Amino acid sequence: MPVYRQGVTEGALSILPVDNHHGCGQLGAREIAATVLDPEMPMLTLADLGVLREVSERDGVVTVTITPTYSGCPALHEMRVDLKERLLDAGYERVEIRIVLAPAWTTDWISAEGRRKLEEHGIAPPQRGAGPVTLNLVPPSAAVRCPRCGSRDTTELSRFSSTACKALRRCEACREPFEHVKEI
Predict the structure, then answer these.
(1) Final residue of a domain: which of 51, 84, 108?
(2) Count of domains in the chain?
(3) Number of Cβ within a 10 Å radius of residue 113
(4) Is 117 inside a domain boundary?
(5) What is the C-alpha to C-alpha distance for residues 40 and 100, in angstroms, rounded to an integer?
(6) What pTM was estimated for this model as a whole?
(7) Do 91 and 169 fall into the same domain?
(8) Which carries the bigger pLDDT value, residue 47 or residue 6?
């Protein structure tokens, strides 16, 4: 009965196998769940995004635990449906999807591969957390690098873009607009 739990490697969330007794060439439940794409950013898998927290198989039941990017995430329903369908299609007969809100998801959980894919698709990945944050009423202003030309001379055009977790920015050097996944 393999169980996969979150593990943190160099600040990024990774799902680590605790036990794996699958035959050669056979994909396990964790490997299958890790291929499900995020409905809002389909260049990323749920594993890339860091929302896939745990996958376990016990007594014929596969339990997948996910943490949405935020509690009101409109893609949560689609994530649940896609995970369940993918595992049922792979031959697992009983699948449960658990939603866990604590600890809350953070952009630090986006994998290095996920960050690379975001940039490859013209979306500026979020910066990693810098440690203790002074609490005040104004968020710290951090330079966001343009995913096209690399300039840090960028301007936020809108706090919200195609999804609530992204902002719309423009590079002042190349004048190209781009989306930026906001740090949470």
Answers:
(1) 108
(2) 2
(3) 13
(4) no
(5) 19
(6) 0.69
(7) no
(8) 47
